[in-house]
Write a structure and sequence with these properties.
The chain is mainly alpha-helical. It has helices at residues 2-10, 18-29, 34-60, 64-88, 93-121, 129-132, 138-152, 165-181, 185-191, 194-208, 228-244, 249-266, and strands at residues 159-161, 213-215. It is globular, with a radius of gyration of 20 Å. The N and C termini lie far apart (46 Å).
Amino acid sequence: MQIFHQILNSCKNIQIGIIDKIYINLHQYTGLTPYMKKHIPNLLTLMNLVSGFVAIIMIMNGNLKLSVWFITASLLFDFGDGLAARLLKAFSGIGLQLDSLADMVSFGIAPGLLMYRLIVSAEGLDSIAGYIQYTPVLIPAFSGLRLARFNIDKAQSDHFRGLPTPGNAFFIISLVFAAEYGNSQLIQGLINSRAVLCFLTILFSSLMITGIPMFSFKFRHLRFKGNELRIVFLGSSALLIGGAGFASLPLIIILYIIVSIIWALIS
């Protein structure tokens, strides 16, 4: 309890930002060495990669319902490694490169393979099915291009240009969540259509390499001011999920794209 009160008292200094307060407290009371703190974000990134690899194994074994949970875990680890890096001030060149490599596996290859399995299992366009079933190669190809551009584009430090690879992965797994867990007849009908799946693959893959500005979820501090759009969007998404369950998940990424376009036009 004494340590807890010390932490609370240290937060009374309003001249220090919230992120700096957390950093100081972590440094003083956790006993983490600078070396340990530097690699905590990298450990989370590796967990992202491992989860993505397990998702690929699940997809290859035909267990699509379980694979989307591992891709979801990758999304959480991807969010966590960036947040940990900012809280611990543990930025490094290797962390940046490792993050891109992990994202390529978890949000490029895994969703691409998942979409391939969905298209193969779908119906329609039987005469050209042998050709269009390879449309999902666009997902890892454009994801790789998207990640490479991000690494060299300093302007994307606080926003994105084009749909981020985790956003594209989220949309793909949201289709499975909505169909399998949300019992959405509409989504079940959509993912049973080979033509619709190919169209969505081309559309969302193309969005990744466009120059459309899209807001990021990078919280550089924990105050509401400066994070209004992020907090309101996350709150609205939570309400949407609470009201419609898994069936609402595809709508969230569509809403994200629409809100980002409006945000870009008025800002």
